[in-house]
TrEMBL record:
Native source species: Kribbella sandramycini
Membrane topology: Multi-pass membrane protein
Protein name per its UniProtKB record: SURF1-like protein
Alphabetical keyword list: Cell membrane, Membrane, Transmembrane, Transmembrane helix
Keyword Cell membrane: yes
Compartments, record wording: Cell membrane; Membrane
Pfam entry (one): SURF1
Family: Belongs to the SURF1 family.
């Protein structure tokens, strides 16, 4: 074994180890998704309840509360309405309209009133349905605040935003908001029919199991190749090849001998 072969073998072992780790990571993500799906199924089946009863005193809609059905009664504050840009529902681009609903105790919740499909190349909705006047009662699905990593799309700017984030909206709107928002299922008085509805949650295992199998297969393939080549070493291309003389070949006469 030469140094070059040992280096190649070490590289293959490292790559195989990385593949195994990535496969285990995909299985970990699968288990997380399965646990989240169980919570979602349980929340979808739970009876409607007042929002303060679901979130508790901290007013935070966490993963444990996502898709719970909450019932709220209050008055819309249309002066602090936000238009969400660059939204997509059922593969259709458009806008979502978020309006704070002020509750009797003074606290407010962001209500996603619905989806408006984009018409042509418009950069903002041509018409936003007005909110009902007076008191409304809403039954809807709770969602946790959206976060975009390093982007600041959750901070409203000139009446528009890209994400729905309770704490960020509260700083700009000057309201005591729940950390999360509500997607309308039913409203009294009825929600405007111009709004499109939202699809339910995706409850499946996703591609994680098959991704894990792929990574494990790559690891087995790498180790298998290493074992094969260790038992069947490749001869260097420039290795000397012995030449066997032809016994029937007649030697040429010497050119240095005396001539007669």
């Amino acid at each position: 074994m030469n140094v070059r072969w040992l280096g190649a073998a070490l590289t293959i072992v490292v790559l195989a180890t990385v593949c195994v780790m990535l496969g285990r990571w995909q299985l970990h993500r699968l288990h997380e998704r399965e646990a989240r799906n169980e919570v979602t199924r349980s929340n979808l089946a739970a009876a409607p309840a007042p929002i303060e009863q679901i979130t508790g005193a901290d007013g935070v809609v966490g993963d444990r509360n996502a898709w719970r059905t909450a019932v709220v009664t209050g008055r819309y504050d249309a002066s602090k309405q936000i238009v969400l840009k660059y939204r997509n529902v059922r593969d259709r681009p458009g806008f979502e309209i978020v309006t704070p609903l002020v509750l009797p105790d003074g606290k407010a919740v962001l209500v996603d009133r619905g989806f408006l499909a984009r018409q042509g190349a418009e950069l903002s909705p041509g018409h936003v349905p007005a909110v009902p006047s007076g008191e409304v009662t809403i039954t809807g699905r709770l969602q946790r605040s959206e976060r975009g990593g390093r982007t600041n799309g959750g901070t409203p700017d000139n009446g528009t935003a890209r994400l729905i984030n309770g704490p960020e909206y509260a700083k700009v709107l000057g309201l005591d908001l729940y950390d999360g928002y509500l997607m309308i299922d039913q409203q009294t008085p009825a929600n405007d029919q111009a709004f499109g509805t939202f699809p339910g949650p995706e409850i499946d295992d996703g591609p994680h199991f098959f991704y894990a199998l792929q990574w494990f297969f790559f690891a087995v393939l790498a180790i298998g190749g290493l074992v094969y080549f260790s038992r069947n070493p490749i001869r260097p291309a420039d290795a000397a090849v012995p030449v066997v003389a032809d016994r029937n070949e007649v030697p040429e006469p010497s050119s240095t001998g005396d001539s007669t």
